[in-house]
Amino acid sequence: MDLAAIYHFIFETYAGIGCLVGAGVVISVIAAFISERKTRKMFRDRGERVREDEDADTSEDTESE
User: Fold this and answer.
1) CA atoms within 13 A of residue 29's CA, in its CB half-sphere
2) How many whole angstroms from its chain centre is CA 38?
3) HEC-encoded secondary structure of the chain
4) Which CA distances in Å does 13 have to 9, 16, 25?
5) Does any domain span residue 21?
6) Would you state the pLDDT for residue 48?
7) Residues of the chain falling short of pLDDT 50
């Protein structure tokens, strides 16, 4: 197969364009997976987050007693 035939298949047929789109989706999913994995390693779980509303409610209750 020569380069002209490959070019014609990839850019001038529906099947070739479908292959390009499919390859783009696969590459994007792999890149997102790797990025998410690195982010999870960098920002580890620091426990449950305390909401400010809950904290304010408990301080008001203790002052009135």
Assistant:
1) 6
2) 11
3) CCHHHHHHHHHHCHHHHHHHHHHHHHHHHHHHHHHHHHHHHHCCCCCCCCCHHHHHHHHHHHHHC
4) 5, 5, 19
5) yes
6) 73
7) none
Q: Token match 């990839």: residue?
A: 10
**Which residue, 51, 49, 29, 33, is CA-closest to 41?**
33
Counting the structural domains of the chain, the total is 1
Scan for tokens 């509303």, then name that residue. Answer: 53
Is 65 within the bounds of a domain?
A: no
Structural tokens at position 18: 């479908």
Cβ-contact 10, 19 below 8 angstroms: yes
Q: Quote the pLDDT of residue 34.
A: 94
Domain of 7? 1-40
